[in-house]
């Protein structure tokens, strides 16, 4: 592919001045329109070393309002980043609606420089490409515009630029031994980049090759490419908005629903004495396991969903009582705030993912997308249907990093819920736990049950299983949660130790 690119293209100074001025005015207008339309934009600069990414980013942003964009340089991973899944560092930098994020190198490092350096092994390459494609698809499906630019120069031009940088005291630090190695093995590195372009060039996030030998020509093409893409995306959204509301929702035939919850035995219980003995035993085990998790740098994600008054808080309290508070974080999930609402729905959860050796506990989770948001109409049918795959892919990425993921559905029947609601209303210390919304949600019990059944079937995986907890007995439910966590951690620690 790349060998057919004509790298001799040039622009004279006057043509460059005129085009840059004209496209700059258009780009400034389009930035304002994207902001008004709430369209998030990501612009990715990749390419060969010394191709001029920094220079070209600077020339591009001269046309933009600096209040509306951020620039991120993605160099080698920091210690903090290495302790989390690879995509975490990019998820937390995804732009809010109406803003632009510009990346000087990006998530492509894993299949580009890291592959050349032997950090990404050949056997891991397919998974790395799948992670990238899933990441970009989730963002573009959610409305983000991704513009990917690959700056290309020849081996001879690269060598000349490296030498010029190396000869100056002020810039020699910018040329590393790895840079010279990539120049020496230019053909090998070029092939790696060609494979990257071929495997990740999609309709939603296509690559544009920038002939970067002449810096003025490259600047013109970049500014024109970005402006053209933003204009296209704005027009596409306007045309879509003028169309009718689309196909009606297909209602499932409840005669053939999966019925996971209807088969749960809610009569399971424990005596108070059994509960106290089991609880003490499991909490002591968990205390020791927590230290082992930190020693082996194993991250853990525990998710709690369930009916209102289903016992999530009580289970979490017993789970954390013997944990070192420096090594875990409980994340209660409420309705998204103004900042969270203008990001992709998964953004706020990525911000709270644990680093290696730590535990993140979520009291309600990203599964709100396929439950409350689905039922209350806070997202479209297409969005919640798409979410099953998006969630599975996110959890797979975490699991591939080594994260233990357990998801608990705290299940009670409708009568038990009503009893607990009345108990809360009659107890001044617990009245804050009950709201009018809780009572309203009871009216939609059947709709929620259908949504939960589908969620459990479509998102319970080998790497992130759902565990339905029989919760009519609080004693039984709390012990089951602790036992499942202890068993999962023991198994993970055993595997980690045998691998060392």
Notes on the structure:
This protein has 500 residues and is α/β, with parallel strands linked by helices. It has two domains: 2-241, 3-Layer(aba) Sandwich (Rossmann fold); 256-499, P-loop containing nucleotide triphosphate hydrolases (Rossmann fold, 3-Layer(aba) Sandwich). It contains 20 helices and ten strands. It has helices spanning 13-37, 53-61, 79-82, 88-91, 113-116, 125-141, 155-166, 177-184, 186-200, 215-242, 272-296, 312-320, 338-341, 347-350, 372-376, 381-401, 414-426, 436-442, 445-459, 474-499, and strands at residues 41-47, 69-73, 100-104, 145-152, 207-211, 300-306, 328-332, 359-363, 404-411, 466-470. Helix 1 (13-37) packs parallel to helix 10, helix 6 (125-141) packs antiparallel against helix 16 (381-401) and helix 12 packs across helix 20 (474-499). The relative contact order is 0.12. Mean pLDDT is 93; it is low at 246-250.
- CATH level-four homologous superfamily name of the largest domain: P-loop containing nucleotide triphosphate hydrolases
Q: Terminal Cα separation, in Å?
A: 42 Å
In CATH, the architecture of the largest domain is 3-Layer(aba) Sandwich
Helix content: 40-55%
Q: What is the residue-mean pLDDT, rounded to a whole number?
A: 93
Using the CA coordinates, give the radius of gyration. 27 Å
In what order do the strands lie side by side in the largest sheet? 2-3-1-4-5
Number of discrete helical segments: 20
